């Protein structure tokens, strides 16, 4: 990411007044790491008028970074736009900070995909996840597939300490049970919800 970050810094210096892109070697700043709860790398945080405003969860290209610095407070995107062209999308329940707990607490079994819009692995997984949601709704009563844009829902992201995407978590009767570590195709998701047993990870 460093080359794109450096190129973006040059463009921001010349195109965006009163703005700058900076970097910190986190291996030498334990005080800052603790203050800002740094858990993984790279972590990008946005500051305005001397105060921390938000984590940056956008794309990692030069153009993405420059675009953000030109308009760091855009309107919140509608997550439905990312799913609308996928078969079965109406059966993927899109959750956010405001409705997550209510949904989880009122459903018997829920597999939740936490994703980032810029994540390539997430994009590759969405079609299979969406198709699986259609079959799960039709053939496995009481089970649901849901999704959360983790870049737009900081409360949920912090609660579950998300470190990478996609992350899939299984909930049953309102309680988090375990992380899903199975396959990523349609049948894998369907078979899991027919018999939701925690997969063993090899040591």
TrEMBL record:
Matching CDD domains: PDI_a_PDIR
N-terminal signal peptide: none
The Thioredoxin domain, residue ranges: 72-198
GO cellular component annotations of the record: endoplasmic reticulum
Transferase found in the keyword field: no
GO MF, one example: protein disulfide isomerase activity
Alphabetical GO biological process terms: protein folding
UniProt keyword list: Redox-active center, Repeat, Signal
Pfam families linked to this entry: Thioredoxin
Family to which this protein belongs: Belongs to the protein disulfide isomerase family.
Matches recorded under PANTHER family: PROTEIN DISULFIDE-ISOMERASE A5, PROTEIN DISULFIDE-ISOMERASE C17H9.14C-RELATED
Protein name: Thioredoxin domain-containing protein
Organism placement in taxonomy: Eukaryota, Metazoa, Spiralia, Gnathifera, Rotifera
